[in-house]
Amino acid sequence: MDLQRTADISDATEEMLEIAAVVDAALRPIAIRPVVVGGLAVAYWTTGLYLTADIDVVMPYSTEVEQRLASLGFEREGRFWTLPGRRPVLEAPGSTLEFNPDGHTEVELASGRTLRIQEVEEGVLLRLAELSQTATRTCSSSASGFSGSRESIASASERGPPMSRSPRPSMR
Fold it and tell me: What average pLDDT score do residues 45-55 get?
């Protein structure tokens, strides 16, 4: 399946996975194997229950990668590669998987093409690390504005933790 024929695929997740597989096939001769990460990896592992609008991969950058993507019809727009007249965009936010460089699985698509997809555990570890960093920054910035007076400490302890003040939405 060439890149042009991926436009005929009605399922958006399958279309983006096939585009990533075409990119993978184009880069194999130069020993580069992109790994699908982010929302598209989640969409694959949840069999389409999660939807994403872009194709995130990790792969090394080189002028040869740029040339091969251009030969497939991609155009560089800032940090993204786009296909003129098509919705999915390709982005390579990094060159290797953050926690485990081998944290991927080789999968075969309906077309018979194969590609690498980030393992679930790798994605969860990345999200937990991002959450931890965000929580640390949020707590740090909140603490910097806290006066620490007896009155404010007493008031905060009477209110209780933030989760006890507002009920969580129902998950029906």
Answer: 89
Of the chain, the end-to-end C-alpha distance in Å amounts to: 41
Q: Are 117 and 105 in contact (CB under 8 A)?
A: yes
Tokens at 115, concatenated: 């590609």
Per the prediction, the chain carries an average pLDDT of: 81
pLDDT tens digits, one per residue of 150-172 = 444 344 444 444 333 333 333 33
Counting other chains too, the contacts that 27-35 makes at CB distance below 8 Å and 24 or more residues apart are: 27/59, 27/65, 27/68, 30/62, 30/64, 30/65, 30/68, 32/59, 32/60, 32/62, 32/65, 33/59, 33/116, 34/58, 34/59, 34/92, 34/115, 34/116, 35/59, 35/97, 35/104, 35/116, 35/117, 35/118
The encoded tokens of residue 17 equal: 């996975």
Among 94, 111, 81, CA closest to 36: 94
Question: For the stretch 145-159, what's the b/e string if a residue is b when 16 or more beta carbons lie within 10 angstroms of its beta carbon?
Answer: eeeeeeeeeeeeeee
Q: What percent of the chain has pLDDT over 70?
A: 77
